[in-house]
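Researcher: Here's a chain I'd like modeled. Treat it as a single chain, no partners, no ligands.
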Amino acid sequence: MSIADIIFVGVSFVTVASAAVVVLSRSLIYSVFSLLFTFFGVATLYVFLGADFLAGAQVLIYVGGILVLLLFGVMLTHRLYNLNLTTERFQPLTGTVIAIAVFISLSVVAIGTRWKLIGEKELEPTTKQFGEAFLSSYLLPFEIASVLLLVALIGAAMLVRRRTDI
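Model: Modeled as a single isolated chain. Structure tokens:
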């Protein structure tokens, strides 16, 4: 095994373990902090796949935006800190059976598929290709999405404002 394989297995283990902590933890704080390791692990796996743009987007959007929002929401809400959040029904046996069935079916499909193998290819950045595509053939959809996001942001700001401010 090479050093890259060892790092890949280590990162995969940390990602899956932290995702399990997110799902199984009873504390909201532990779940959010474990989500941090899960997001970074997924970004690292994207790097191993040679998808540098996706890795950067993962870190910027999920870690930089969504996770920070969750952390501030949890930390600034004092009432939720000591609140025990549980579901009405907890069925570990049914969930375990379904999870094992999904795992077995995915394993059978992965093992039974004839995968097309190619030789090692040199990793090259994908950001140039995305930039050229956004500024040439996909310019109009990119600009329409930008305008829609701007309208959504203005709408959200208007909803947050108080009626006396208008």
